[in-house]
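Closing statement on the protoporphyrin IX containing FE sub-project.
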Amino acid sequence: MARSAGEGAPRQRHGAAAHRRDPLAFLTAEFDEAHDVWRSASGRLCVAGPAAAREVLGNRRGTFVETSDFFHTRNGVFGPRSAQIDIGRAARALIRGHLDARRADLPRLVRERLAPVGNWPDAGNLLVHEHLREVLLCPDAPAELRETIDGIITRAVLAGARGRHSALSRLVFRRRAMGTLVREIEARRNTGVGVGVGESRDLLDVTVTGAGRSADPGEVAEVYLSFLFATVGSVGFALGWSVLLAGTHPDTWGEEPGWIVREALRLWPVAWLFTRTPGVEHDLAGVTAGPRDAVDVCLYLVHRHPRHWEHPEEFVPRRWAGAVPDPAFMPFGVGPHTCAGASVTMTLLEDLIRIITRDWRLSVTEGGDGPHLGPALAPPQFTAELVGRVAPERR
Ligand code: HEM
């Protein structure tokens, strides 16, 4: 993605973008701010413009091969589409019911898990896991499966987790973990407990029910793992970014929690990259895209597009005051595959940020590393100290 001479210097990074060693800084340097779609040196097509991003992800003209990152398994895309839709809806309903029933637990969780000091981003992932534990696995689930899920979180979900274990130990663990999950999926199918529309006790029941009896249990396990990554991983990272940015901008503490969360998701979209394949040759914002191309929609650039956003690099929650849905803001995707968990995610994040900024004084110290770049964009390491600002009985 070379920049040709005379196309202007890379933008200055400041404010909220000033995280040391931003692993995405190279993208900003490659984007010339004039071409919303361009062909990189490696031959891939890169998309940074909001309209082009919506065209690719929304796929209204049917010019891209239909896919869903969430339902992607090693055998291809899990399907049929009707099963994907059923699973997404049932999962959202289960999580919504749990959040409504357990909302009163959140102040205690913040007090016990985040105060007086927490090591982030892990603290956010572990808090989300604690709150959604029973949605992920019902209390009746076998102890071995419970330990397996805990192991997957430590070895694969937490930021930089993969680097904390050797490739061999990860491979051995993965084989064992998939074996345990597949056995549980088969057992649930055989007994029928929790399997049936409206009977789901947890997200594994949701996946087994929606997938139907003929689905390959290995693929069902992979879809279930997508839920683990989306909940404990993505929601935890989004919480981490919101806490980090609120903590480094104390002047924003009185702002609406929803603005803080949205602004954090704008600057640091946890789902930062989507890859799509054109089904037919067509024109994409002045560039010819064909079936042999890989098209990368880079949400990080879309969310900082200088023609669309004022002060794009700065953390300004107030920009969301009275805002209607913004066409250049798509942290949960666009079109038919828009995130099924978007509304429940926002509810949980807003509730947590409201409690943290209302009841506590937040003080954040950043560690030396930068954000962690993987399939998800995770915050850098930081510590957050929480000191009560209201009487203990009120928090
Ligand atoms: C911060 C948290 C989250 C983010 C940033 C996020 C982001 C996304 C994005 C960008 C997509 C679209 C992927 C594509 O177009 O290929 C997606 C799809 C999906 N997400 Fe999320 N997600 C989050 C949390 C959740 C949660 C908590 C759930 C649980 C219900 C969930 C369930 C799904 C499902 C089922 C899909 C597939 C939708 C479809 O293809 O029909 N996500 N998510």
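DSSP finds twelve helices and 13 strands in the chain. With this model delivered, the sub-project is considered complete and its resources will be redirected to Aim 3.
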